[in-house]
Write a structure and sequence with these properties.
- With 242 residues, the chain is α/β, with parallel strands linked by helices.
- 36% of the residues lie in helices and 24% in strands.
- It is built from ten helices and ten strands.
- The strands form two sheets. It has a six-stranded mixed beta sheet with strand order 6-7-8-3-9-10, sandwiched between helices. A four-stranded antiparallel beta sheet has the order 2-1-4-5, covered by helices on one side.
- Helix 3 (97-107) crosses helix 4 (112-125).
- It is globular.
- The termini are far apart.
Amino acid sequence: MTPPLLEAKNLFYAYPDGSPALNGANLSLHEGEKLALVGANGSGKSTLLAHLAGCFAAREGEIALFGETVGRSLERLRKAVGLIFQEPDDQLFMPVVLEDVAFGLVSRGVNVAEAHERAAKTLGELSAAHLANRQPHRLSGGEKRLAALAGILAMEPEIVVLDEPSAALDPRARRRVIGILHALDRPIILATHDLDMALDVCSRALVMNEGQIAAEGEPSALFKNESLLSANGLELPLKYSR
């Protein structure tokens, strides 16, 4: 059997103040899969994503990439997994968007001219070329998310991980993000409270609670189970609550 592209095995993690964040979390992502990770605030979603993207080293448990355990050497994981933060402002800090999108490439040793060319190409593929010379702090929420996404995609990660990509978006911007996620030709993990977005985009879902996976299955089955959702701090998606 082909191993998962990315796998978390029995991860435990606590923050420096002792607050527990992960309590034996397990996750696997397979070739071509778009996976939803859903749960209430504080359930551990963002911390799990940070481990998967190589931002945190596992204190207990392990991460495997393409079937090989990563250990505490995280560089390969950081190159393979592109993480888009919940707050785009955490990723946008250059004077103009084009420089922001090119920043990751330049930091990896790509010369500036080539990095800008690849950044412009990525913005064009997202129908966001008009943002290239805009100042990031003057963008709308939806435009900031497009710029942050472009910055990750320009580096051509093998896996894309997104933390709450629909947060604070108006309906039009939300639909645009859903369209982009549908069109992405690589595996993704989508952490979200937006169960309707997860239904639209993902083929499998994990429900997270208190730092571990409480349930998994097809989104259409999990998200109709009102008692399961309620027990894990979630509510029925709009699609099923009418």
